[in-house]
Design brief:
The complex is a heterodimer. Chain A is an alpha/beta fold. Chain A has a single domain, classed as Beta Polymerase, domain 2 (2-Layer Sandwich). Chain A contains three helices and seven strands; from the N terminus they run αββαββββαβ. Chain A has a five-stranded mixed β-sheet, covered by helices on one side. A two-stranded parallel sheet of chain A has the order 6-7. Chain A is globular and about 50 Å long. The termini of chain A are far apart. The relative contact order of chain A is 0.14. The model of chain A has no long low-confidence stretch (mean pLDDT 83). Chain B has a single domain, classed as Cytochrome-c3 Hydrogenase, chain B (Orthogonal Bundle). In chain B, 48% of the residues lie in helices and 13% in strands. In chain B, strands 1-2-3 form a three-stranded antiparallel β-sheet. In chain B, a hairpin with a 2-residue loop joins strand 6 and strand 7. In chain B, helix 4 runs antiparallel to helix 11 and helix 4 packs antiparallel against helix 14. The longest helix of chain B has 29 residues. The chains are: A alpha/beta, B alpha+beta. At the A-B interface, strand 3 of A face helix 1, helix 8, strand 6, strand 7 and strand 8 of B.
Chain lengths: 157, 374
Protein backbone atom coordinates (compact mmCIF):
# COMPACT_ATOMS: atom_id res chain seq x y z
CA UNK A 1 0.00 0.00 0.00
CA UNK A 2 1.44 3.40 -0.91
CA UNK A 3 0.41 6.90 -0.03
CA UNK A 4 -1.66 7.35 -3.19
CA UNK A 5 -4.01 4.45 -2.47
CA UNK A 6 -4.24 5.50 1.18
CA UNK A 7 -5.22 9.01 0.12
CA UNK A 8 -7.80 7.70 -2.31
CA UNK A 9 -9.29 5.38 0.29
CA UNK A 10 -9.62 8.18 2.83
CA UNK A 11 -10.96 10.86 0.52
CA UNK A 12 -13.60 8.51 -0.91
CA UNK A 13 -14.97 7.98 2.58
CA UNK A 14 -14.37 11.46 4.03
CA UNK A 15 -14.43 14.02 1.22
CA UNK A 16 -13.86 16.89 3.64
CA UNK A 17 -10.36 15.75 4.67
CA UNK A 18 -8.09 18.18 3.00
CA UNK A 19 -4.64 16.91 2.05
CA UNK A 20 -2.17 19.72 2.29
CA UNK A 21 0.91 18.23 0.76
CA UNK A 22 2.67 14.99 0.13
CA UNK A 23 6.25 14.87 1.23
CA UNK A 24 7.21 11.59 -0.35
CA UNK A 25 5.80 8.18 -1.16
CA UNK A 26 5.48 7.16 2.45
CA UNK A 27 4.44 10.40 4.13
CA UNK A 28 1.17 12.29 3.77
CA UNK A 29 -0.21 15.25 5.65
CA UNK A 30 -3.91 15.92 5.96
CA UNK A 31 -6.17 18.33 7.76
CA UNK A 32 -9.27 17.11 9.53
CA UNK A 33 -12.21 18.87 11.17
CA UNK A 34 -11.93 18.64 14.95
CA UNK A 35 -15.43 17.23 15.33
CA UNK A 36 -14.66 14.27 13.09
CA UNK A 37 -11.35 13.10 14.58
CA UNK A 38 -12.63 10.01 16.35
CA UNK A 39 -14.68 8.87 13.37
CA UNK A 40 -11.71 9.27 11.03
CA UNK A 41 -9.35 7.46 13.42
CA UNK A 42 -11.82 4.60 13.74
CA UNK A 43 -11.94 4.28 9.96
CA UNK A 44 -8.15 4.50 9.64
CA UNK A 45 -7.61 1.80 12.21
CA UNK A 46 -10.22 -0.63 10.93
CA UNK A 47 -10.13 -0.19 7.17
CA UNK A 48 -6.71 1.16 6.16
CA UNK A 49 -4.56 -0.73 8.68
CA UNK A 50 -3.31 2.34 10.52
CA UNK A 51 -2.97 0.52 13.82
CA UNK A 52 -0.04 2.35 15.37
CA UNK A 53 -0.34 5.82 16.84
CA UNK A 54 3.25 7.12 16.77
CA UNK A 55 2.48 10.25 18.75
CA UNK A 56 0.04 13.04 19.38
CA UNK A 57 0.99 16.56 20.41
CA UNK A 58 0.18 20.23 20.08
CA UNK A 59 1.75 23.12 18.18
CA UNK A 60 0.95 26.69 19.16
CA UNK A 61 0.48 29.49 16.61
CA UNK A 62 -0.28 32.71 18.52
CA UNK A 63 -0.35 34.99 15.49
CA UNK A 64 -3.01 32.82 13.80
CA UNK A 65 -4.70 32.39 17.20
CA UNK A 66 -4.73 28.64 16.68
CA UNK A 67 -3.50 25.48 18.34
CA UNK A 68 -2.90 22.52 16.10
CA UNK A 69 -3.31 19.04 17.51
CA UNK A 70 -1.19 16.72 15.39
CA UNK A 71 -1.71 12.97 15.17
CA UNK A 72 1.13 10.97 13.61
CA UNK A 73 -0.32 7.59 12.69
CA UNK A 74 1.70 4.72 11.30
CA UNK A 75 1.10 1.09 10.62
CA UNK A 76 2.61 -2.28 11.34
CA UNK A 77 1.60 -3.57 7.89
CA UNK A 78 2.65 -0.84 5.45
CA UNK A 79 5.25 1.95 5.62
CA UNK A 80 2.93 4.95 5.06
CA UNK A 81 2.76 7.50 7.88
CA UNK A 82 -0.17 9.86 7.99
CA UNK A 83 0.17 13.20 9.76
CA UNK A 84 -3.28 14.47 10.58
CA UNK A 85 -3.92 17.92 11.99
CA UNK A 86 -6.95 19.28 13.75
CA UNK A 87 -7.04 23.05 14.17
CA UNK A 88 -8.53 24.47 17.35
CA UNK A 89 -9.17 28.06 18.47
CA UNK A 90 -6.58 29.21 20.97
CA UNK A 91 -9.04 30.67 23.46
CA UNK A 92 -11.03 27.50 23.89
CA UNK A 93 -9.20 24.45 22.55
CA UNK A 94 -11.51 21.47 22.89
CA UNK A 95 -11.35 18.19 21.07
CA UNK A 96 -12.73 14.70 21.40
CA UNK A 97 -10.30 12.18 22.89
CA UNK A 98 -9.11 9.32 20.67
CA UNK A 99 -8.34 6.99 23.60
CA UNK A 100 -11.26 4.66 22.70
CA UNK A 101 -9.57 4.02 19.33
CA UNK A 102 -5.85 4.27 20.12
CA UNK A 103 -5.27 3.14 23.67
CA UNK A 104 -1.77 4.63 23.95
CA UNK A 105 -3.08 8.14 23.24
CA UNK A 106 -3.89 8.31 26.96
CA UNK A 107 -0.57 9.72 28.15
CA UNK A 108 -0.02 11.82 25.01
CA UNK A 109 -3.32 13.56 25.64
CA UNK A 110 -2.63 14.08 29.32
CA UNK A 111 0.71 15.64 28.41
CA UNK A 112 -0.75 17.84 25.67
CA UNK A 113 -3.42 18.96 28.10
CA UNK A 114 -1.00 20.17 30.73
CA UNK A 115 1.54 21.66 28.33
CA UNK A 116 -0.89 23.41 25.96
CA UNK A 117 -4.19 23.54 27.80
CA UNK A 118 -6.07 21.47 25.23
CA UNK A 119 -9.25 20.07 26.77
CA UNK A 120 -9.93 16.50 25.77
CA UNK A 121 -13.58 15.55 26.00
CA UNK A 122 -14.45 12.06 27.24
CA UNK A 123 -10.87 11.31 28.24
CA UNK A 124 -10.88 8.61 30.93
CA UNK A 125 -8.45 10.32 33.29
CA UNK A 126 -7.32 13.82 32.34
CA UNK A 127 -4.90 14.53 35.23
CA UNK A 128 -1.53 16.30 34.92
CA UNK A 129 1.24 13.86 34.04
CA UNK A 130 4.75 15.27 34.03
CA UNK A 131 4.78 18.76 35.52
CA UNK A 132 4.70 19.87 39.13
CA UNK A 133 1.39 21.02 40.58
CA UNK A 134 2.42 24.68 40.70
CA UNK A 135 2.89 24.82 36.93
CA UNK A 136 -0.56 23.47 36.15
CA UNK A 137 -2.61 26.06 34.32
CA UNK A 138 0.34 28.02 32.94
CA UNK A 139 0.54 25.93 29.73
CA UNK A 140 4.35 26.14 29.48
CA UNK A 141 4.79 24.98 25.90
CA UNK A 142 2.66 27.77 24.49
CA UNK A 143 4.72 30.41 22.72
CA UNK A 144 3.66 33.27 24.98
CA UNK A 145 4.73 31.51 28.19
CA UNK A 146 6.89 33.90 30.15
CA UNK A 147 8.27 31.64 32.85
CA UNK A 148 10.95 30.10 30.65
CA UNK A 149 13.80 29.84 31.48
CA UNK A 150 13.68 31.71 34.81
CA UNK A 151 10.96 29.64 36.38
CA UNK A 152 11.40 26.26 34.79
CA UNK A 153 14.98 25.60 33.75
CA UNK A 154 17.16 28.21 35.37
CA UNK A 155 20.20 25.99 35.60
CA UNK A 156 19.97 24.63 32.09
CA UNK A 157 19.80 27.60 29.80
CA UNK B 1 -6.22 3.79 40.19
CA UNK B 2 -8.92 3.90 42.81
CA UNK B 3 -7.28 5.03 46.05
CA UNK B 4 -9.86 3.49 48.37
CA UNK B 5 -8.73 0.25 49.94
CA UNK B 6 -10.76 -2.60 51.35
CA UNK B 7 -9.78 -4.01 54.77
CA UNK B 8 -7.72 -6.79 53.20
CA UNK B 9 -5.88 -4.53 50.75
CA UNK B 10 -3.00 -2.07 50.96
CA UNK B 11 -1.17 0.36 48.71
CA UNK B 12 2.61 0.06 48.34
CA UNK B 13 4.62 2.86 46.77
CA UNK B 14 7.62 1.60 44.84
CA UNK B 15 9.98 4.44 44.07
CA UNK B 16 10.67 7.12 42.94
CA UNK B 17 14.06 5.97 44.19
CA UNK B 18 14.24 2.23 44.19
CA UNK B 19 17.14 -0.11 43.45
CA UNK B 20 15.21 -1.89 40.72
CA UNK B 21 14.46 1.24 38.77
CA UNK B 22 16.70 2.54 36.01
CA UNK B 23 15.53 6.06 36.77
CA UNK B 24 13.05 7.71 39.07
CA UNK B 25 9.42 6.85 38.48
CA UNK B 26 6.87 5.79 41.00
CA UNK B 27 4.75 2.69 40.87
CA UNK B 28 1.79 2.67 43.22
CA UNK B 29 0.60 -0.90 43.58
CA UNK B 30 -2.57 -1.92 45.34
CA UNK B 31 -2.00 -5.33 46.88
CA UNK B 32 -4.32 -7.96 48.17
CA UNK B 33 -2.06 -10.24 50.12
CA UNK B 34 0.73 -11.08 47.69
CA UNK B 35 -1.20 -10.22 44.53
CA UNK B 36 -1.26 -6.93 42.66
CA UNK B 37 -4.87 -5.88 42.21
CA UNK B 38 -4.28 -2.56 40.51
CA UNK B 39 -1.37 -0.24 39.89
CA UNK B 40 -0.48 3.16 38.59
CA UNK B 41 2.66 4.71 37.13
CA UNK B 42 3.59 8.22 38.17
CA UNK B 43 6.26 9.96 36.07
CA UNK B 44 7.71 13.43 35.81
CA UNK B 45 10.32 13.31 38.55
CA UNK B 46 13.11 14.31 36.19
CA UNK B 47 11.15 16.29 33.63
CA UNK B 48 13.71 18.50 31.93
CA UNK B 49 11.52 20.33 29.42
CA UNK B 50 13.80 19.37 26.54
CA UNK B 51 11.13 20.21 23.97
CA UNK B 52 10.98 23.78 25.27
CA UNK B 53 14.76 24.07 25.54
CA UNK B 54 15.18 22.94 21.92
CA UNK B 55 12.88 25.72 20.78
CA UNK B 56 15.29 28.21 22.35
CA UNK B 57 18.53 26.78 20.95
CA UNK B 58 19.96 27.04 17.47
CA UNK B 59 19.95 23.88 15.40
CA UNK B 60 23.61 23.12 16.09
CA UNK B 61 23.26 23.66 19.84
CA UNK B 62 20.33 21.27 19.83
CA UNK B 63 22.62 18.30 19.10
CA UNK B 64 24.14 18.42 22.57
CA UNK B 65 20.69 18.71 24.15
CA UNK B 66 19.18 15.66 22.44
CA UNK B 67 22.12 13.61 23.73
CA UNK B 68 20.73 14.13 27.21
CA UNK B 69 17.34 12.60 26.42
CA UNK B 70 18.69 9.14 27.12
CA UNK B 71 22.34 8.55 27.72
CA UNK B 72 22.26 4.91 26.64
CA UNK B 73 20.94 5.77 23.21
CA UNK B 74 22.49 9.19 22.74
CA UNK B 75 23.68 8.52 19.22
CA UNK B 76 20.30 7.31 17.93
CA UNK B 77 18.63 10.38 19.42
CA UNK B 78 21.13 12.50 17.53
CA UNK B 79 20.45 10.55 14.36
CA UNK B 80 16.71 11.23 14.61
CA UNK B 81 17.28 14.93 15.28
CA UNK B 82 19.95 15.43 12.65
CA UNK B 83 17.90 13.40 10.16
CA UNK B 84 14.97 15.80 10.61
CA UNK B 85 17.14 18.83 9.84
CA UNK B 86 18.75 17.06 6.88
CA UNK B 87 15.34 16.21 5.44
CA UNK B 88 14.10 19.77 5.88
CA UNK B 89 17.20 21.41 4.45
CA UNK B 90 17.73 18.77 1.76
CA UNK B 91 21.27 17.86 2.81
CA UNK B 92 22.76 14.73 1.25
CA UNK B 93 25.07 12.82 3.57
CA UNK B 94 28.18 11.36 1.85
CA UNK B 95 28.34 7.59 1.88
CA UNK B 96 31.40 7.34 4.10
CA UNK B 97 29.70 9.38 6.80
CA UNK B 98 26.60 7.22 6.55
CA UNK B 99 28.68 4.09 7.14
CA UNK B 100 30.44 5.67 10.13
CA UNK B 101 27.05 6.61 11.58
CA UNK B 102 25.79 3.05 11.20
CA UNK B 103 28.93 1.71 12.91
CA UNK B 104 28.57 4.03 15.90
CA UNK B 105 24.82 3.45 16.18
CA UNK B 106 25.19 -0.31 16.17
CA UNK B 107 28.02 -0.18 18.72
CA UNK B 108 25.76 1.92 20.86
CA UNK B 109 22.94 -0.61 20.43
CA UNK B 110 25.20 -3.44 21.58
CA UNK B 111 26.36 -1.62 24.72
CA UNK B 112 22.80 -0.57 25.56
CA UNK B 113 21.50 -4.13 25.22
CA UNK B 114 24.39 -5.54 27.26
CA UNK B 115 23.84 -3.06 30.07
CA UNK B 116 20.05 -3.43 29.98
CA UNK B 117 20.34 -7.19 30.14
CA UNK B 118 22.91 -7.17 32.94
CA UNK B 119 20.93 -4.67 34.95
CA UNK B 120 17.88 -6.84 34.52
CA UNK B 121 19.75 -9.87 35.83
CA UNK B 122 20.72 -7.90 38.92
CA UNK B 123 17.06 -6.99 39.51
CA UNK B 124 16.38 -10.70 39.80
CA UNK B 125 19.23 -11.15 42.24
CA UNK B 126 21.61 -12.58 39.61
CA UNK B 127 24.29 -10.03 40.50
CA UNK B 128 27.28 -11.91 39.11
CA UNK B 129 25.75 -11.56 35.62
CA UNK B 130 25.72 -7.81 36.08
CA UNK B 131 29.44 -7.88 36.87
CA UNK B 132 30.18 -9.95 33.74
CA UNK B 133 28.22 -7.60 31.48
CA UNK B 134 29.76 -4.45 32.94
CA UNK B 135 33.23 -5.91 32.39
CA UNK B 136 32.55 -6.84 28.77
CA UNK B 137 30.76 -3.59 28.00
CA UNK B 138 33.85 -1.60 28.92
CA UNK B 139 35.64 -2.70 25.72
CA UNK B 140 32.72 -1.48 23.65
CA UNK B 141 32.71 1.85 25.46
CA UNK B 142 36.39 2.22 24.62
CA UNK B 143 35.63 1.54 20.95
CA UNK B 144 32.90 4.20 20.94
CA UNK B 145 35.21 6.52 22.84
CA UNK B 146 37.94 6.04 20.24
CA UNK B 147 35.59 7.23 17.45
CA UNK B 148 33.52 9.93 19.14
CA UNK B 149 35.76 11.11 21.95
CA UNK B 150 33.14 10.56 24.64
CA UNK B 151 31.68 7.57 26.42
CA UNK B 152 28.03 8.48 26.75
CA UNK B 153 27.07 11.92 25.48
CA UNK B 154 28.87 12.00 22.18
CA UNK B 155 27.71 15.11 20.23
CA UNK B 156 29.20 13.27 17.29
CA UNK B 157 26.83 13.82 14.38
CA UNK B 158 26.78 17.01 12.36
CA UNK B 159 24.39 18.17 9.69
CA UNK B 160 25.60 16.43 6.54
CA UNK B 161 28.24 14.23 8.15
CA UNK B 162 30.07 13.24 11.29
CA UNK B 163 32.58 15.04 13.46
CA UNK B 164 35.55 12.75 12.89
CA UNK B 165 36.74 9.94 10.69
CA UNK B 166 37.38 6.46 12.08
CA UNK B 167 40.69 6.25 13.99
CA UNK B 168 43.66 4.33 12.59
CA UNK B 169 43.62 0.61 13.09
CA UNK B 170 39.94 0.66 14.03
CA UNK B 171 39.13 -2.53 12.10
CA UNK B 172 41.71 -4.49 14.09
CA UNK B 173 40.38 -3.19 17.40
CA UNK B 174 36.88 -4.20 16.39
CA UNK B 175 38.08 -7.65 15.42
CA UNK B 176 39.71 -8.13 18.81
CA UNK B 177 36.78 -6.81 20.85
CA UNK B 178 34.12 -8.69 18.89
CA UNK B 179 35.98 -11.95 19.38
CA UNK B 180 35.60 -11.45 23.12
CA UNK B 181 32.01 -10.22 22.94
CA UNK B 182 30.95 -13.21 20.80
CA UNK B 183 32.33 -15.57 23.41
CA UNK B 184 30.72 -13.52 26.18
CA UNK B 185 27.29 -13.51 24.54
CA UNK B 186 27.41 -17.28 24.09
CA UNK B 187 28.32 -17.52 27.73
CA UNK B 188 25.44 -15.29 28.84
CA UNK B 189 23.04 -17.34 26.80
CA UNK B 190 24.26 -20.55 28.34
CA UNK B 191 24.12 -19.10 31.85
CA UNK B 192 20.55 -17.96 31.30
CA UNK B 193 19.46 -21.21 29.73
CA UNK B 194 20.94 -23.41 32.45
CA UNK B 195 20.00 -21.35 35.51
CA UNK B 196 16.94 -22.98 37.02
CA UNK B 197 16.02 -20.04 39.24
CA UNK B 198 16.37 -17.52 36.44
CA UNK B 199 14.15 -19.62 34.20
CA UNK B 200 11.54 -20.10 36.90
CA UNK B 201 11.32 -16.34 37.30
CA UNK B 202 11.17 -15.47 33.61
CA UNK B 203 9.61 -18.23 31.50
CA UNK B 204 5.89 -17.63 31.07
CA UNK B 205 5.96 -14.40 33.12
CA UNK B 206 4.51 -11.15 31.81
CA UNK B 207 3.22 -12.67 28.60
CA UNK B 208 1.95 -10.27 25.93
CA UNK B 209 0.55 -11.61 22.68
CA UNK B 210 1.13 -9.96 19.33
CA UNK B 211 -2.30 -8.36 18.92
CA UNK B 212 -2.28 -6.86 22.40
CA UNK B 213 1.24 -5.53 21.93
CA UNK B 214 0.24 -3.85 18.66
CA UNK B 215 -2.83 -2.41 20.31
CA UNK B 216 -0.78 -0.98 23.14
CA UNK B 217 1.61 0.75 20.73
CA UNK B 218 4.70 -1.07 22.02
CA UNK B 219 7.79 -1.18 19.78
CA UNK B 220 11.31 -2.54 19.88
CA UNK B 221 12.38 -5.76 21.63
CA UNK B 222 9.16 -6.14 23.68
CA UNK B 223 7.18 -6.15 20.43
CA UNK B 224 9.61 -8.36 18.53
CA UNK B 225 9.49 -10.87 21.40
CA UNK B 226 5.84 -11.43 20.50
CA UNK B 227 6.70 -12.41 16.92
CA UNK B 228 6.01 -9.15 15.07
CA UNK B 229 8.96 -8.36 12.81
CA UNK B 230 8.66 -4.58 13.13
CA UNK B 231 11.98 -2.83 12.79
CA UNK B 232 12.38 0.67 11.36
CA UNK B 233 15.76 -0.32 9.88
CA UNK B 234 13.91 -2.76 7.61
CA UNK B 235 10.48 -1.15 7.24
CA UNK B 236 11.65 2.36 6.52
CA UNK B 237 15.39 2.15 5.85
CA UNK B 238 17.48 5.20 6.65
CA UNK B 239 21.24 5.66 6.11
CA UNK B 240 22.70 2.63 4.32
CA UNK B 241 20.67 -0.10 6.02
CA UNK B 242 19.28 -1.02 2.59
CA UNK B 243 22.72 -2.20 1.44
CA UNK B 244 23.38 -4.26 4.54
CA UNK B 245 22.35 -7.81 5.16
CA UNK B 246 20.72 -8.46 8.52
CA UNK B 247 17.64 -10.12 9.86
CA UNK B 248 15.04 -8.90 12.31
CA UNK B 249 15.30 -11.03 15.46
CA UNK B 250 11.96 -12.25 16.71
CA UNK B 251 10.63 -14.72 19.22
CA UNK B 252 7.11 -15.97 19.58
CA UNK B 253 6.66 -16.52 23.31
CA UNK B 254 6.18 -12.88 24.30
CA UNK B 255 7.34 -13.48 27.87
CA UNK B 256 10.20 -11.98 29.83
CA UNK B 257 12.63 -14.70 28.77
CA UNK B 258 11.91 -14.00 25.10
CA UNK B 259 12.55 -10.27 25.52
CA UNK B 260 16.02 -10.94 26.91
CA UNK B 261 16.65 -13.54 24.19
CA UNK B 262 15.73 -11.03 21.47
CA UNK B 263 18.30 -8.61 22.89
CA UNK B 264 20.98 -11.31 22.89
CA UNK B 265 20.21 -12.14 19.25
CA UNK B 266 20.28 -8.47 18.32
CA UNK B 267 23.74 -8.08 19.81
CA UNK B 268 25.00 -10.77 17.42
CA UNK B 269 23.16 -9.22 14.49
CA UNK B 270 24.60 -5.78 15.24
CA UNK B 271 28.14 -7.18 15.32
CA UNK B 272 27.48 -8.74 11.92
CA UNK B 273 26.27 -5.37 10.59
CA UNK B 274 29.39 -3.58 11.82
CA UNK B 275 31.68 -6.15 10.22
CA UNK B 276 29.90 -5.68 6.90
CA UNK B 277 30.23 -1.91 7.24
CA UNK B 278 33.97 -2.18 7.81
CA UNK B 279 34.29 -4.32 4.68
CA UNK B 280 32.15 -2.10 2.50
CA UNK B 281 33.00 1.39 3.73
CA UNK B 282 34.16 3.56 0.79
CA UNK B 283 36.75 6.28 1.06
CA UNK B 284 35.68 9.83 0.42
CA UNK B 285 34.81 13.10 2.10
CA UNK B 286 32.90 13.30 5.38
CA UNK B 287 30.78 16.29 4.39
CA UNK B 288 29.01 17.10 1.12
CA UNK B 289 31.45 18.93 -1.11
CA UNK B 290 30.82 22.46 -2.30
CA UNK B 291 28.52 23.32 0.61
CA UNK B 292 28.94 25.27 3.82
CA UNK B 293 28.31 22.23 5.99
CA UNK B 294 31.23 21.01 8.03
CA UNK B 295 32.44 20.35 11.55
CA UNK B 296 31.69 23.91 12.54
CA UNK B 297 28.60 24.81 10.59
CA UNK B 298 27.85 28.47 11.33
CA UNK B 299 24.34 29.50 12.38
CA UNK B 300 22.13 28.00 9.73
CA UNK B 301 18.57 28.76 8.72
CA UNK B 302 16.42 25.82 7.81
CA UNK B 303 13.63 26.20 5.21
CA UNK B 304 10.12 26.30 6.62
CA UNK B 305 8.36 22.98 6.72
CA UNK B 306 7.40 20.01 8.84
CA UNK B 307 8.94 16.59 8.98
CA UNK B 308 8.66 13.37 10.96
CA UNK B 309 11.77 11.22 11.00
CA UNK B 310 12.08 7.99 12.93
CA UNK B 311 14.94 5.61 13.63
CA UNK B 312 15.35 2.32 15.44
CA UNK B 313 16.52 2.99 18.98
CA UNK B 314 17.86 0.13 21.14
CA UNK B 315 14.43 0.28 22.82
CA UNK B 316 12.22 0.72 19.80
CA UNK B 317 10.90 3.46 17.61
CA UNK B 318 12.48 6.87 18.22
CA UNK B 319 10.89 9.68 16.25
CA UNK B 320 11.27 13.42 16.06
CA UNK B 321 8.64 15.72 14.64
CA UNK B 322 10.12 19.07 13.73
CA UNK B 323 8.34 22.23 12.65
CA UNK B 324 10.55 24.91 11.15
CA UNK B 325 9.49 28.48 10.41
CA UNK B 326 12.58 29.42 8.44
CA UNK B 327 14.55 30.91 11.32
CA UNK B 328 17.72 29.66 13.00
CA UNK B 329 15.83 27.85 15.76
CA UNK B 330 13.24 25.10 15.42
CA UNK B 331 9.67 26.29 15.96
CA UNK B 332 8.55 23.08 17.67
CA UNK B 333 10.22 19.75 18.30
CA UNK B 334 8.27 16.74 19.53
CA UNK B 335 10.27 13.83 20.86
CA UNK B 336 8.49 10.53 20.49
CA UNK B 337 10.40 8.11 22.65
CA UNK B 338 10.01 4.33 22.50
CA UNK B 339 9.70 3.76 26.25
CA UNK B 340 6.81 6.17 26.71
CA UNK B 341 4.15 3.79 25.36
CA UNK B 342 5.94 0.78 26.84
CA UNK B 343 5.88 2.19 30.36
CA UNK B 344 2.22 3.00 29.93
CA UNK B 345 1.39 -0.67 29.54
CA UNK B 346 2.77 -1.63 32.97
CA UNK B 347 -0.48 -1.35 35.01
CA UNK B 348 -2.22 -3.71 32.63
CA UNK B 349 0.62 -6.22 32.66
CA UNK B 350 0.98 -6.18 36.43
CA UNK B 351 -2.65 -6.98 37.16
CA UNK B 352 -2.90 -10.25 39.06
CA UNK B 353 0.84 -11.02 39.35
CA UNK B 354 2.64 -11.67 42.66
CA UNK B 355 4.66 -8.82 44.16
CA UNK B 356 7.97 -10.51 43.35
CA UNK B 357 7.15 -10.44 39.64
CA UNK B 358 6.69 -6.66 39.52
CA UNK B 359 10.46 -6.29 39.24
CA UNK B 360 10.76 -9.11 36.73
CA UNK B 361 8.19 -7.59 34.39
CA UNK B 362 9.00 -3.89 34.79
CA UNK B 363 12.73 -4.51 34.40
CA UNK B 364 12.37 -6.58 31.24
CA UNK B 365 10.96 -3.57 29.35
CA UNK B 366 14.39 -1.89 29.63
CA UNK B 367 12.77 1.37 30.59
CA UNK B 368 14.72 4.59 30.50
CA UNK B 369 12.92 7.15 32.64
CA UNK B 370 15.11 9.96 31.45
CA UNK B 371 13.63 9.52 28.01
CA UNK B 372 10.04 9.18 29.21
CA UNK B 373 10.27 12.45 31.11
CA UNK B 374 12.44 14.28 28.58
Amino acid sequence: MDSKSVMNAITSKFPDIHFVFRESDIRITGRVRAAKVVEVCQYLKEEVEFGHLCCEFGVDYPERNEIEVVYVIGSYEHPVILTMKAILPRDNPEIESVVPVYWNANWYERETHELFGVQYLNHPDLRPLVLTEELYGEWPLRKDYEGFPNKTARNLV
Amino acid sequence: MDETVKPSEMIVHLGPQHPMMPGPFRLNAKLKGETVVDSEVDIGWIHKGIEKILENKTYLQGITIVDRICYLAAITNEEAYVGCVEKLAGIEVPERSQYIRVIVEELSRIQSHILGMGEYASFLGFVSMFMYTIRDREDLMSLIDSITGARITHSFLRFGGVKQDLPDNFANDVKYVFGNIRKAVDQYEELYATDRIYKARTVGIGVVDADTAKDLGVSGPPLRATGVAFDIRKDEPYLVYNDLDFKVCTHTDGDVYARIQVRLDEIRESMYIIEQCLDQIPSGPLFPEGTAYGRRTPIMRVPAGEVFHRVEDPRGEMGFYMVSDGSDKPYRVKVRGPVYPTLQTLPGLLKGVPVADIVAIAGSMDTCTSEVDR
